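Progress note, project year one: complex with iron/sulfur cluster.
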Amino acid sequence: MDACPVAPRRVAPCSILLAPHETNTMPSRQPLSSTFITRPEQLAHALAIPLEPLQAVHAHYPLRISAYYLQLIKQHGLPLWKQAVPDLKELNDSSGLVDPLDEENLSPVPCLVHKYPDRALFLVCSECAMYCRFCTRKRKVGKPDMVINDQTIAAGLEYLARTPAITDVLVSGGDPFMLPLSRLEQILKALRAIPSVVTIRIGTRVPCTLPSRVTLRLAAMLKKYHPLYINTHFNHPAEITPEAALACGRLADAGIPLGCQTVLLRGVNDSPETIKMLMRQLLRIRVKPYYLFQADLTRGTSHFRTTIETGVDIMRQLIGHVSGMAVPTYALDAPGGGGKIPLTPHYINSLGKTLEFTTYRHLPCSYPNEIIP
Ligand code: SF4
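Model obtained:
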């Protein structure tokens, strides 16, 4: 078996320390300042908006927008603006929960969430290419107190190695694609060296917010660690650009099945037409719509939440009206770590010896529900 940091005594010889020239951010060839807006002054200047509200929000929550996504905001306006630009409403949310999914209490070691018996969420990077204003991990992503280092990674790997019931690991953060390529590969290699880990999934928004980072080298590296799945995150059809298509194409060409986890956001995508267009566009760039999430109860994000009726109505206008391939599961991640529950429109009227139901065209229909010997 390959040497890997799966046991405490082996951490030192095989720890995944960063090489001295590497940082936990962008490749050194690309200066941070030319790639990202991170300061309120930069954003106020770029969008010609008042500085003070940005400064007030930035005192509590981090700011990062890639130059690429900034151009999209300028072209397409509000639906993308709302996702990226700090808003004073983030500070006036008394109903939200700091940790709505109870992730901290479900972490047996720092930066690893073990909620379902056979799956674990492994946080390997504290940074993202954009700090989305609606982020569920708003409490810590991009903040100095989200500490991810060699020790937390080693502790996570060790936990996975001694918990063979976990066969599926979701590598997330932050965004794992913000790691230097060599560090991400070391983590994947260490996961693959754990015999009980069958499936590796990566959650990343980089194909949407900084698609140039999905290089052929990255795709070639990922290809070595199958079965590997990637769930990316697009929320609006305007995010489906030629650059995003190229990024997703590279990953798909590496044999990686791609899914999309969209969040239903008020003022961004809360109409059937927008979601329908997004789902169709995703299929066009080889991404299978996976989840449409009802927004979590995260503090600082209540202005994004829709009612459940809005989501169910959107699903009614998807199911049967577009290819089943384009239909995600509308789901709610239960507060307190209860797990995901699907929120499916109601089609069944009664179930006995006959199933009575209503079709997607609102017509009554039935189906015999008996075993014929
Ligand atoms: S990319 Fe994901 S983890 Fe990062 S801020 Fe956006 S929603 Fe949160």
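Residues 62 and 220 are 32 Å apart (CA to CA).
The two ends are 53 Å apart (CA to CA).
No further modelling is planned for this target in the current period.
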